[in-house]
Amino acid sequence: MSKQEMLKLIEKKRAELIDIVLKNGINSTISIQYSQELDILLTQYIKDDQAQKNRVYYS
């Protein structure tokens, strides 16, 4: 997945999370689930970005 595609996915999940929180509250099970899914996407984005920087640095 490209960096741009990942950013779009993160933004989509963030917007969904905001909507879910507004409808269900911040401590609802669904809000926590969406938050965790966003965390996973962000973590993957950071890992991929670091790996890319390392490839460029060590090339």
Question: Which key phrases capture this entry?
Answer:
about 60 residues; mainly alpha; MYOD Basic-Helix-Loop-Helix Domain, subunit B; elongated
Which word captures the global form? Answer: elongated
DSSP helix count?
2
The whole-number mean of residue pLDDT values reads 93
Main sheet record? none
- What is the H level of CATH, i.e. the homologous superfamily? Helix-loop-helix DNA-binding domain
Q: Look up the CATH topology.
A: MYOD Basic-Helix-Loop-Helix Domain, subunit B
- Number-wise, the strands total 0
Strand content: under 5%
CATH architecture verdict: Irregular
Distance N to C terminus:
21 Å
Describe what is shown at a glance.
The chain is mainly alpha-helical.
Topology of helices and strands:
Blueprint lengths: L2 H22 L4 H30 L1
Helix pairs in contact: 1-2
What report would you give on this structure?
The chain is built from two helices and no strands. Helices cover 88% and strands 0% of the residues. The chain has helices spanning 3-24, 29-58. The protein has 59 residues and is mainly α. It has a single domain, classed as MYOD Basic-Helix-Loop-Helix Domain, subunit B, CATH 4.10.280.
